[in-house]
Every structure is written in C-alpha cells, then in structure tokens.
Amino acid sequence: MRELLPFLKDLKAERGRLALGTTLLIVSLLAAIGLLGLSGWLITAAAVAGLSGLALEVYRPSAGIRFFAIARTVARYFERLVHHDAVLRALARLRGQLFRALAPVPLPRLARLRRSELLNRMTADVEALDNLYLRIVGPTLAAAVTIVLTVGVLIVLTGPLGWTVGAVLAIGGVLLPATAWRLGFPHGEAIDRHLPALRGAGVDAVQGLAELRAGGALERQERVLMRAAHGLAQARARAQRLTGLGDAAVGLLGHAALLAALLSGIPLYQAGEISGPILALAALAALAAGEALSALPGAWQQLGRTRAAARRLLELQRGEVVDEAATSAGALGAASGPTVRTGPTGTEAVGPDATATPAPSTAPAAGAEAGPREPAAAAAPQTALPIRFDKVDFRHHTYAEPILEQVDLHIAAGEQVVVYGPSGSGKSTLLDLIAGFIVPQGGTVYLGERASTAWPEAERFGALGYLTQRTELFADTVAANLRLAAPQADDQALWAALQRVALDQRIAANAAGLEAWVGEGGAQLSGGEARRLALARVVLTDAPVVLLDEPFRGLDDETAATVCHRLEPWLQGRTVLIVSHAPEAAPAHQRRLAFETLQRGSAAAPL
Amino acid sequence: MAVRAPNATAATAPALESTTERPSRWLRAQIAPARTAVTAHIGVGLFDAALIVAQALLIAWIVHAAIIEKTPLSALMPYAVALAGVFIGRALCTWARGAAGAWSAQAITASIRQRLYRHVAALGPSRLQRYHSGSVASTLVEQVEALEGYYAHYLPQMVLASLVPLALIVVVFVLDPLAGALLLLAVPLVPLFMALIGMRAERRAQAQQQAINRISAHFLDRLRGLATLRLFRAGERAAADVERAADHYRARSMEVLKVAFLSSAALELISALSIALVAIYVGFSLLGFLEFGPGPQLGLFSGLAILILAPEIFLPLRRFAVCYHDKATAVGAAKEITQLLAEPVPRELSAAEWCAQAVAIREPESGLPIPNPVAVAFRGVSVTFPTAPAEATEPADRPAEGQASTAMVGLRDLDLRIEAGERVVIRGPSGAGKSTLLHLAAGFLEPTRGEVRIGDALPPGGAGVAWVGQQPWLFHGTIRENLLLADPLAAAAPLSEAHGGEDEQRLWAALREADLEAVVQALPQGLDTPLGEGGYGLSGGQASRLALARAVLSGAPLLLLDEPTAGLDPASAERVLKALARLADGRRTILMVAHDAAVHAWGERIVVIEHGRLVEDRRA
C-alpha cells in the first residue's frame, strides 16, 4: 500500500473539497437509511395505533420522511459535483508533477522511453488513479462513518439488536472489500498482460497485411489474433464473474443484517424491551445500511490495478524506469538512425524524396530577389564556441555495426561546416553527440573547453540552437511553438524569424496569423512548412552554436534557396554544423566534409 | 477460383446497405451468437424480480405476525428460513447475471472481431491505404473491446428496466390499488426521464470522456516532445502549461456535468419522493385518516410489503441509467466498425486460396524450396481510383515528412508481358503508378479494365507471391517466428509446435541466402531473439534482408519488391542488392520498383512508367 501514500498525500491540497464531498456522501447515505427506517416506523406505528385506537402524532414523522427524501437527492447531486471537481483538479496537478519528475531523466533514456509504449501506458496510469479517491477512499470512508452512525443510533434505540446488526455489518464490511481486493489482484494483472498482446496482434494484422497475404499466413494471424482476444476475454470474464460474486455477497450482507435485526429484535419486542415501530425501523435501517457498502467490492477489486499504476508512476518519478529494451537482446538505438517500423509509431526513416536532385547554386538568384526584404542584421550572438571530436566511437547497440570509429573533428569558433553523405548513413549522430542526446562509447566530444557531457544540461542547451532530424511541433498555436525558444519574444520578433525561413506569408495568409493552431505534430502544416517553423524556432534561440539536421528537407529548390540565403546573415559569427545529403546547396565559404571519410576517422584532417 | 468482373463491387451492394444502417440497430442485430446467453441473462433478471416479491411479502409477514399477531419467534422460524433461502437465491441471481453478461459479451465480440479481421484481410493493403493504418488496427482491437459493456450490461438492463418495474407495480396494485395507482403515476414520468437521461447521459459521458481524452492527449503530446522542450529549456514552462491545460478542460467539463448530473438527480428524486408518498399514504390509511378508497382495508402486512417494494421499482431504472455510458461508447465504436465493414470487397478470399501452393521440389540439403518461375502479363490494363470520401481520410495521418505520399495512382491501357524468370526494374517519377502495377501483380488490387495474368491464372490475391515492401513489416515475435510466417511447411503446423532440426537447418539456409546468417549468429539468442517494440531493433537493411529470407522460404515463384533499398545507406543497399542477386537465379520472376541508379544497373530489363502509361521498355 505504500505506493499509494504519495498520491494520497497529493490529494491533501484538495482536502477541503474532498472532505465536503465525502460529508455530502455520508449525508445522502444517512438520508436513504433514514427514509426507509422512518417510513417503516411510521407505517408500523400507524398500524399499531390504528388497531388500538390511540392517537399518533404523524406530522413530524411525515415531514421527516419528506426531508430525508429531498436531502438524499440534493446531497447526492452536490456530492458528485464536488468529488468530480476535486479529482479532476488533483489529476491536473499530478500530471504537472509527473512532468517535472520526468524532466531530469537522462536524454538517451528519454529517447528509448519515447519509442516504447511506456508513455502511452503512463497516460493511462494517471487516469487509473482517479479510481483511488472517487471509487475507493471516499466511498469506503463514507460507508464506515455511515455504518458506525447508524449502528450507534440502533444501539441507543434497541441495545442488543444494534450490537448484532453492527457485528454483521462490521464483519462483512471488512471482509468483503478485503476479499475482493485479494481475489481481484491477479485478474487486473492478467488484463494488463493480455491487452498489449492483443494490440500487437491487431497492429501486425493491419500493418503486415501485404506480408501476411503474400506468405499465405492470414489464417495463422487470425489464430494469433483470436487467441490473444480470447485470452483477454477470459481474463475479463473472470474479473466480471468476480464482480458479480462481490455484488451478490454485498446484497447478501444487507439481507443478513435485516435477518439478524428481525431474529434478535422479535424476542426483544415480545419481552417488551422495544416497541413494534422501533423493530420495523431497525430492520429496514439495517437493510438500507447494507446498501452503503454496495459499491465497495467492485471498487476494491480494482485496487490491484490502481496500485500497479501507482507503482509504475512512482518508478518513473524516481527514475527507476524499467527499460524494457535493455532487458532483451539488445538495447534499441537512441534518437537517430534508420530503424524499421515495428509499431504504430513509425520512425522517421528518410524516404525517397530526401534523395531528390541537388539544389542549384543559390547565391546569385536568391540574392537579387531577397535583398530588400533582408531582416535587420542579427544581434551579435554570445561568444561562439569551438567544437571538437576526439577519437569518438559510437554504435547504436552492442551488436550493431559501428557508425563512428575514432572520429576526430575540429570546428573552430565561428566556423561553418557542412557534413554531407547519403541519407540514413548516421550523420545525425554527430549532432546528437554534441547535444548530449547520446553518449559515445569511446572518446570525447568537446563543446568549448568542456566535454559536452560535463556541461550542466541547461547551460549546454542554452548555448545550442539545434534543429533535430525529427520535426517536433506541439499541438498548440504557431506563436506558442515559436515562443518555446524565446518566451519573451514579441510578435515582431516572431514575424522576423518567420520571414527568415520564408514562412511569414504562409502564416499571414491564415486569418488567425500567429494564433493559428498547428495541430498534433504539426498536422495542419505540410512537411516542408513544419520543417521551416521548427527552423524559425531555432533562429529565435540566438544561440552561439547552431546544429542543423537536413534544414531544407521537404522544401522545393526555390524555397530552399531563399531560406538558405536569408539564413546566411544570421549564421555569421556562430559556430555552425549542418548535416545534409545535398552539399551543393551550401554557400561556398562553408567547409564541406564527406561523412564517409569522416566516419572512419582517418581522412578528416583537423584544422 | 471465382472470376472477377470489373463490376464485381456492384454484387456486394446489398451487404453494403445492411452494414451502414444505424449503429444501434446494427448493435442489436449482432446478438445472434449469444442469443441464449442474453435470454438467460434477462430470464435470471425476471426470476430475481419474482424473488424480490417473495422477499417483500416474507419480511412484511414476519413483522406483521410478530407485532400484530404476537406470534412467537419459534413459530416464525420457517418463514425466516424461507427468507434466508430467498436471500441466497437473490445472491445467486446477481452472480448468474454477471456470468451471463461476461459470457454473451465474449461470444459476441469474438464473432465481430473475426468477421472484421476477415473483412480487413479480404480488403487487402491496397484498399486500406486511404485509412490510417493505426485507426484500422484500433478498430480491430479497441473499438471491438468497447462493445463489451453494451452486451454485458446495457442491452439486458434495458429490457429489465422496462419489464421489472411494471411487474412490481402489478403486485403493489394487488396489495393496494391506490398505492399501485400512485406508483403508476410516477411511471409516465419515467419514460420522460429516460429520454432525458438518454440525451443527458450521453452528453455527460461524452463531455467527461472528451475532457479526459484532451487532457491526456495534451499531456502525451508534451511528454513525447520532452527532449525538444528541454532543448529549448522550456521544461518547467511546459509543466505549468500541462497543469493549466488540464485545469482548463476540467473547468469546461464541470460546466457540462453540472447540468448532466441533474438528470440522475431527477430520477433519484422521483424514486425518493415515491417512497415518501407511499409511506405517508400507508401510514395515514392505517390510522384511519383516509375514509375513501381501499385505505381502510390496508394492514401492516400489505403496507410494509408496499414500502419494501417501492424502492425496488426504481432500482432497475437507476441501474439502467448507470450503464447508459456503455451504450454511448458502443455506438461510437459501432460507427467505426460498420464504416470499415461497409468498404466493399470484390470477392471473398476462400481459405483454399489463402494457403500458398504446396512446394513439391526442395533442395535435398538445405530443405529450401525450388520455385517454378511464372510469366506475368498485363493486357490492356487500366485502373482508376474513386476519390476517397472525406470521412475515410484521417487528417491526423500525415505521412512522415520527407516521405513519398502513399496514395495510389491509376494506370492507363498498359500492355506488358514479363517472361518467366526475368528480373525487371520498374522506373518512373513519383506518382507515375509504379506501385499500382506491383499491387496488381500481387492481386491486392483488380484492374478496372483489362486483365492481369500470372502464368495462365488470375493473380492469387497475394498468396504464392513474395512481397518485400519499402519498410518490411516485422511481426511481434522472434526472428524464427518472423521467418516461419511465410513458410508453407510451418503454415500447416500449429503455432506452438516444437521446431525440429530440419526446420532449423532450413531457416539458417534461408538466412545465408539473404546474407543475414552472421548477424543472427552474433545475437545471444540467435533465431529466438525477439523483434519489435522492446526487442532487438534490426537496421533497415537487415530488415529488408530478413524479408528476402522470408521470400526464399516461401518458395514463391514471383518476387515483388517495392523500393527495397529506399532510405538505406549505400553500403546497406549494396548488401541487399547482392543478396537479391543470389535469388535472381532464373527460378523466380522478379519485379522491382526502384529509384536508385545502382538498382537500375541490376535489372536485366527496365520498364519506365510515366503518368500511368508505359513509356519505355528496354533490355539492359
């Protein structure tokens, strides 16, 4: 249970709302018991009075009945509102906390996390936690208080009858949730285990359909799919039967309380110790009190899953992420490099378009056209830093072929270098190594005087403007995506950056302008537009070291030339490393290196 | 084999109509495989109602006898025992309903999923191209799962919610017509509120789900981009942003919930007030305040029985309201499922066609099959694609940047004959129709006009063809499982069967052919290395070679390759081509779509296609 404590502590901030909600729940449960009990009392008292011809004061009891009827409904309504509000608030804060906790995870591991299903599962786990208060803690607390109060009243009114009913409810009230929890645990786990298997089989069936049909393996895949589905259905059915059993048992508990009230109450009545109406009241109140427990077995049955979710989230928070990739044959590679699609989230292997015809020489044509619109000279960047690779070795995983072997490379402060080579050969690893996204197996990468890995992350990233291989835009507005790089930038600065990447007219054409929604992963923009937006974001960093990975991918030649030309003044004075499959597009003053010669160490003569 | 006329799709039109009807009707029509279980579920619910009546009468009788008749407890024991029996019976009913619900849901969803899978399989990769592959997989998995609650809870509860209250009111009516009439007055309110609940509950469920989905999507979006956020030192800002967005969606969903909770509150209020009114009415009658109607005849027995029955009349309705979101979820899922099922299939693939043709001849040493090459002929082939309906194209499915669009392009009057054993490279600019040609040869697609022949038969719908796509799909499982997938010898064997030495030998031989032997040997788990998510990641070139090994094992006489070297570095591409050259030994007919100049040199015949027409055909 320890794993739940931190999350229960998190709920403290909402304790006012939660206390109110739980109080309202208790009021509504008590009102339901009062309604049935008082009704039983009234009917019995009336029957007795009617027979004996005695007068009975009926107005106060009937007013009480009406009060209970209305109080039950009103309390329940507000209880729901208050509880939902509190839990949604708590979950909002939990997401923020988790996000902060994940922030310091080492970057190479983050890249692996991103590939695995872990992030999806984590999102589901956070949702599973709303179960904790809304269905388990709150109702259990409310049921306990309600039953104690009800039994207390019964003891005052009837003595031994109250004790008997109390004993039945207390034993059942503890045993049932505890049993449901213990029995439910393996079922929840089984469902969690079978679901990914079914999902995998489903994805295989659709993504691998051509292979399946060609291989005559459709029936085999059908068996795999249906078997996974059957396994999951069996696990669900077992869990559902258990829920049914819990419901049956909790119903039986209320009935047992009623029977206990009758069997212990009738002798008391006949001995003259309690009155007939009180006997009826006690019996019906006992029946209604059992209902306070009705939701508990089902909720406690889920506790196992809630705990598992809490445990996984805590592990993530503490950084003890179980790296599934590392536990099997070999760890998956880090952020870059072509890998085969193996899941719903494809990697970004470079397609045939990337190997398109090289861009023509850019300077003269673009110069004449873009001259007047040249943005104001870029502000002088911080002191430029040199970059140095010293005998660097890198491979994605132990069994992979090495990508870099004994690589030496020196880029002087303020120098501009283009590394070219065919798509998919691993040029991006150079940039990822400088940024510290991946760590070399041998040798050192220096940024300035310090090894890249020795820099505090914030300082290192403060010195870098890095356009990564993957265009990463967020489901937000254009402005919000740009301001990631420069939170204080005004609209004018954003437009200037957009102008530099020749995207200003496209954005201005939209009525919403900078406030236009980019959509998930930049879905509202074309690939080339998304690329340029990401480039504009790098421009806004104003960093002394600029790393650009295929900056013109997805751009037609003309646009690429324009962007290249407009970017030129901004690049002046910064240390620049560009990797590209088309070196012809690079201005003449940039030093060009072939990745193939650089890769094996020998030919890259340092300056 | 069924002959396909160009208008074959028209023949399936009636099936199309039957699957595009309203989702709720479609959902009801699916109970066929579990009619018994659903009927049993409802039957048990009705039996439970009978037990409720017995329970109310027994409790009322015991209290009445004890208080009014002063019967001693010992004389009441038989009634108490009977009551205990009724209680146990009710517990059994509750348990049985849960079990019946699970049973029917399982049977129905299994049948739907199987049908859906077969439909998807028959549609084939060409027709599914306009769907987001992730969305089809999610329909097959998550959407079918989403139907469970409908059959396990909603459907039986809907029947019970309309039958049980009426049956109980009849009993009350017999006990006291005026009390019965009073409760019957509440009944007209019930359909009214049911409709209200119907709309409100749906909206509530949707609003809540939407809020949660949005919060989660936002969270996941920022989480996935965490490296980028850190790169811009925006991690802390983003965390605050995540909180702010979650809080924003909370506030919005609370607005909706405020109204939506009212409907269940109204139902509860009717229930509570009915109990209160019945109690007060019965009380006043017993006191003799009411001189009219049947009141004076009312005793403690009938009064108590009515009081105990009153809440039970409303309980099925409240339960129904609780499981209403099951319906909302199921209807949403059914829309996705029926949309996919409505996609016309030209002809059903029969099981016999699915099995690859038996390979008779094998190399004695390696056990590898020796295929018999076939000729491929395109005669006056034209293909036109209907423009996709807007809802079928997922806007979120933007192909990864830099990648060619996968949309299929038509062909016009293509005549081409490829001889048995030839290796042909198909060239042409993007969007010329090269992939369409390949899909036609595989039989994933049928020509709108003209005909395609493999040997002297129609294309086999995929089977008997070796297919190596741009990004070969690796299945969840081990290298061994991925290889055996295409092996006709393994297809017949059950999945779990132990693999003998003969299998082992054949697999290694295939890996050798594909130049993968050394790579797999270096892996600590060898053939049993798991691939895919969380497993070993093969590089692009290695995956292509694994696909070639699959092709070798399949013994297919026709090998179709769609840009097998795209996106590979030159060294990897060279290895793939080298491995491919070993397969081009005249025993297979090879058709390859390619851009690279290196590949063009490899072909012995080059076919160039532009704008859906054949513009050049020359031998190297």
Commentary on this structure:
The complex is a heterodimer of chains A (607) and B (620). Chain A is an alpha/beta fold. Chain A has 2 domains: 2-319, ABC transporter transmembrane region fold; 369-599, 3-Layer(aba) Sandwich (Rossmann fold). Helix content of chain A is 60%, strand content 8%. In chain A, the strands form 2 sheets. Chain A has a 5-stranded parallel β-sheet. In chain A, strands 2-1-4-5 form a 4-stranded antiparallel β-sheet, covered by helices on one side. In chain A, strand 4 and strand 5 form a beta hairpin. Chain A is elongated, with a radius of gyration of 35 Å. Chain A starts with a helix and ends in an 8-residue tail after the last helix. By secondary structure, chain B is α/β, with parallel strands linked by helices. Chain B has 2 domains: 8-341, Up-down Bundle (ABC transporter transmembrane region fold); 421-444 and 463-491 and 500-619, P-loop containing nucleotide triphosphate hydrolases (Rossmann fold, 3-Layer(aba) Sandwich), CATH 3.40.50.300. Chain B is built from 21 helices and 11 strands. Chain B has helices at residues 8-11, 13-19, 23-29, 35-67, 73-127, 133-145, 148-175, 177-224, 226-231, 235-286, 300-322, 324-341, 351-354, 434-442, 479-484, 488-492, 501-513, 517-522, 540-554, 570-583, 597-602; strands at residues 376-383, 411-418, 423-427, 449-454, 465-468, 477-478, 530-531, 558-562, 589-593, 605-610, 613-619. In chain B, the strands form 3 sheets. A 6-stranded mixed β-sheet of chain B has the order 5-8-9-3-10-11. In chain B, helix 4 (35-67) packs antiparallel against helix 5 and helix 7 crosses helix 12 (324-341). The longest helix of chain B is centred in the N-terminal third of the chain and has 55 residues, at 73-127. Chain B is elongated. The interface between A and B is large, with 184 and 189 residues.
